[in-house]
Specification:
The complex is a heterodimer. Chain A is mostly helical. Chain A is 74% helix and 3% strand. Chain A has 13 helices and four strands. Classes of the chains: A mainly alpha, B mainly alpha.
Chain lengths: 303, 268
């Protein structure tokens, strides 16, 4: 009998891996495998016209944050790269905070509607979420460009004499990213708030809590996992953003994603591009790890 | 009798205002984009009357035609491939006990959701550049393969969700009546799983159709899809033709999302 059970189990395992094989093969070829190759490339020497020379070098990793002065050969931090890193982190954090500012009340609003209306309100959040990121970015461009809606309106009203330059600034990147990533904040927040037990809120009011106290002491702590999830979901893609800063930043306000692209275009420094993208991946993985730990330590409090 | 209004425990000062401004801000740019696609003039901010001219000019633009056909070919292949492998993967990973290597499998399947697109795009550029040089082949296969890969988690998740909600007893009953595993799948599992598969396929289709970053890095010269064509155009003087293309793509996405929502709500 034991043999039979074991044989059945073995057959089940074989079937499972056979079923999994096609998906895993595709993912290994076109998702995970190339990441390893990128890692290898980051330790090679750049070729003259793009590509690489198969010669080991740590220059690329060195160049991620440092640079050698071309005149006196002294070492220093690469200001250009560091300022791009700093801008990326700053803009991503601001995007996250602004998304939270708009997303929290919105998710709360939806979660406190009558049950039948909620799905409809959520559909209004989900539709932009599934529509083309480029199109949504472009919709914002049309709003803020010099000959765009906002400037045309202000000129027509006589508020300004000349269009305000909003496009191709950090401000426009921020507006674009908040606009594009807002649904990512609302979705997990709503999921957390929908389960919120309002009898606790009622109890707090019975105990003479003010509205703000209820918000701060009851609602926020209860939906904290949603806040953390939403923040990570917004922060991670913001940090790796490529399309929005490219379209809204116009080539002079680079973020990490654009810096990486530059190495494969004009920069012709593939190893540096590889090292930069592994760095970005590292930061993102760190953020996700922190999230998993935060979510994990959150569990015992609930229920 | 004194009128007694119940204290509204849901209310938070300012929340409704912010929520409404949020919805307005979310939709205003998109609505303006759609409105100006019907502009008779060539401005994207000054209204000069209604016309279909930009739709006509987009329709007659050869580059747009080619990019549309290419986008559709890639999206259809990618959604077919990713959905088929996702069904198999979902069958293998759902409703079983924890198995060895499970976390690795989940990490692999979810990788496209976690790794920033630009990182995957660059990695694929490096990898495929080598293969392109070695084989001399520069066709659409690379794009289809790349799209199939990043569509897998999007196809997998709704299928898995559907499977998890399904009743095991019917399948057990069929097996008790000497149905072969394939018969059980064909006659019992598949008919119940169908809405999940359709939902997954549509999601994969939309995701593939909308992709910019990975396509931009993987495509060979002259292989623009609609989104990369639009990205290229944005650098020039923009006419409402872009709005017209955007509106068309937008309509497809919205229809798909609504269909997807209906499908995933279907009774299990």
């Amino acid at each position: 009998m034991a043999d039979l059970a074991q044989a059945t189990q073995q057959r089940a395992a074989r079937t499972r891996w056979l079923l999994l094989a096609p998906a895993l093969v595709i993912l290994l070829i076109a998702a995970s495998g190339p990441l390893l190759i990128t890692l290898v490339y980051s330790f090679l020497t750049p070729g003259d016209y793009g590509g690489v020379e198969w010669q080991f070098s740590v220059d690329a990793w060195f160049n991620v944050v440092m640079q050698r002065d071309i005149f006196d050969d002294t070492l220093g931090f690469s200001d250009a790269h560091l300022s791009i890193f700093a801008r990326s982190v700053k803009l991503s954090l601001m995007t996250t905070v602004l998304c939270l500012f708009f997303g929290f009340p919105t998710a709360y609003f939806i979660a406190t509607r009558p049950k039948k209306q909620r799905d409809l309100w959520m559909l209004l959040i989900i539709i932009p979420f599934w529509t083309n990121l480029l199109i949504r970015t472009f919709a914002v461009v049309e709003l803020v460009r010099n000959e765009g809606t906002v400037n045309t309106l202000l000129l027509w009203l006589g508020v300004i004499d000349a269009p305000i330059q909003m496009l191709y600034t950090e401000f426009s990147i921020l507006v674009g990213m908040v606009y594009v990533y807002l649904p990512l904040m609302v979705l997990p927040l709503y999921a957390a708030m929908e389960r919120l037990d309002f009898s606790l809120v009622e109890a707090a009011y019975d105990l003479y809590a003010t509205r703000f106290q209820v918000l701060r002491r009851v609602i926020v702590p209860l939906v904290k996992p949603g806040v953390v999830a939403g923040s990570i979901l917004v922060f991670v893609p913001s940090l790796g953003a490529y399309v929005t800063p490219r379209v809204m930043g116009g080539g002079n306000q680079l973020m990490i994603g654009n810096l990486i692209e530059l190495q494969f275009g004009q920069g012709r420094n593939w190893p540096l591009g590889a090292a930069l993208s592994i760095t970005l991946l590292g930061i993102v993985m760190l953020a996700l790890l922190l999230y998993v730990r935060a979510a994990g330590s959150e569990e015992p409090h609930r229920g | 009798m004194a009128r007694y209004t119940r204290y509204d425990v849901h209310r938070q000062t300012g929340f409704t205002t912010i929520a409404f401004s949020c919805f307005v801000l979310l939709y205003m740019p998109i609505i303006l984009l759609v409105i100006y696609s019907f502009n008779a003039g060539s401005s994207i901010a000054i209204w000069e009357g209604f016309s279909w001219r930009w739709y006509q000019s987009a329709w007659q633009n050869e580059q747009v035609q080619e990019a549309t056909v290419r986008s559709l070919i890639i999206a259809l292949w990618a959604s077919a491939v990713s959905t088929s492998v996702a069904v198999m993967a979902a069958l293998a990973t759902t409703r079983t006990r924890k198995f060895r290597g499970q976390s690795v499998v989940f990490a692999l399947i979810n990788q496209p959701l976690m790794v920033p697109e630009i990182v995957t795009a660059v990695a694929l550029l490096i990898f495929f550049a080598g293969i392109k040089v070695a084989t001399g082949y520069t066709g659409l296969f690379y794009l289809i393969l790349a799209h199939s890969a990043f569509c897998i988690p999007f196809a997998y998740l709704p299928i898995r969700a559907r499977l998890q909600g399904m009743d095991l007893t019917l399948e057990q009953a069929a097996a008790d009546l000497y149905a072969t595993p394939f018969q059980v799948f064909r006659r019992i599992t598949l008919p119940q799983l169908w809405p999940g598969i359709l939902a997954g396929a549509m999601l994969a289709f939309v995701i593939s159709l909308d992709d910019v970053v990975i396509t931009e890095f993987v495509k060979s010269a002259g292989q623009d899809t609609l989104p990369t064509y639009m990205l290229g155009q944005l650098r020039r003087v923009v006419t409402p033709e872009i709005n017209a293309i955007s509106t068309a793509l937008l309509s497809i996405s919205i229809l798909m999302v609504i269909a997807f929502t209906v499908l995933s709500k279907m009774k299990k």
